[in-house]
Amino acid sequence: MKVANYFDVAIIGGGPAGLSAALILGRANRRVLLIDEGKPRNRVTYESHGFLTQDSVKPAQIRQIAQTQLEKYNNIIYKSDVAIDINNTNNHFEILTMKNDVFNVRKVIFSTGVKDKYPPIVGFEDIYGYSAFLCPYCDGWEHRNKPFAVLGSTNKMYDYTKEISNWSHDTILFTNGQSGLTFEQEQDLNLHGIQVIKKPIQAFQNKERMLQEIVLDDGSTIARQVLFIQHIDIEQATALPSKLGIKLNEKRAFETERHGKTNIYGIYIIGDAKNIFSGVMKAGYEGLEAAEVINAELIEEDWKQQSADR
Predict the structure, then answer these.
(1) Which CATH class is domain 2-116+233-309?
(2) Spatial contact of 174 and 164, defined as CB atoms under 8 Å apart
(3) Mean pLDDT over residues 106-117, rounded?
(4) Which strands sit side by side in the sheet containing 221-223, from one edge to the other?
(5) Is-same-fold flag (2-116+233-309; 119-229)?
(6) What distance in Å separates the CA atoms of residue 193 and residue 70, rounded to the nearest whole number?
(7) Are 112 and 13 in contact (CB under 8 A)?
(8) How many C-beta atoms surround the C-beta of residue 112 within 10 A?
(9) How far apart are the C-alpha atoms of 282 and 107, rounded to whole Å?
(10) Binning pLDDT at 50, 70 and 90, where does residue 177 land?
(11) What is the pLDDT of residue 4?
(12) DSSP helix/strand/coil, 36
């Protein structure tokens, strides 16, 4: 087993949150280790939107620009690898990777994100990120005024459907066999020209990943070009925080305090791993915020140690 050098901070996960944290900590004169598997959640996304200076840029391009900019900091070490184990020893941490490297660090940021679990409907995976989306603020503008479909069955569908209809007045809500709407809510949607279809969905037909028709279980089809889904099941991309004793909440996000702090001193969690969905700008800000707090923590620890040594 190879033993690598000692680092101030290890960042596990190289999405917008992790990359932002790495940049700020690097500029704070910290030795930073960034471990990234290279499989971001948004790799299925055709373009990223709503991010100043990077609007309509592909997510992979944004990551490449960020990684290139980090290269000038010789105190930031990037490792294409997967963290597979972590041990806490007196608030210092030992990280083992899939490539059999061992890293010893003072602080750890998990920005590992989550993995989407697609609904079991034929064709959904083909259109997700191209003509099927979660966030209207991210993708509504590019598809405005097209025939929309909204998919979901929870009691949140009334408000979500109203929100989606802001981008298209030709909107149909599909509950896929069940509905959490009240009678009054369904009537109100109908009053505003939004049809509610409760029949189960058999498939999404597409052409070059662009939605064409929704096939219902009775064989009938309804032409739609864009799908917004209110909820998609997820699982955490790593279980390492759970091993350390950090719990998941009812949404299956890791429980944190302000700035991504956790109940384990020295462990921070930011981005989708704690929010389920963050968006590029929010994730980047969380990285900056956590980095500043961690650097202040390190300064205080070093100051106290220097005082004790005198």
Answers:
(1) alpha beta
(2) no
(3) 94
(4) 201-207, 210-216, 221-223
(5) yes
(6) 51
(7) yes
(8) 31
(9) 22
(10) very high
(11) 52
(12) strand
3-state helix, strand, coil in the chain (%, to 5): 30, 30, 35
> What's phi and psi for 134, nearest 5 deg?
-100, -40
CA nearest to 112, candidates 203, 235, 9, 210: 235
Q: Would you state the structure tokens that stand for residue 80, as one six-digit string?
A: 């294409």
Q: Among candidates 176, 273, 270, which has minimal Cα distance to 230? A: 176
**Mean pLDDT calculated for residue range 88-93:** 89
CATH pick for 119-229 out of 3.50.50.60, 3.40.190.10, 1.20.810.10, 3.40.50.1980: 3.50.50.60
Q: For the chain, what are the domain ranges?
A: 2-116+233-309, 119-229
Burial class (CB in 10 A: 0-12, 13-18, 19+), 12: buried
Lookup: tokens for 153 = 């069955």
SS3 283: helix
Residue 25 near residue 294, CB atoms below 8 Å = yes
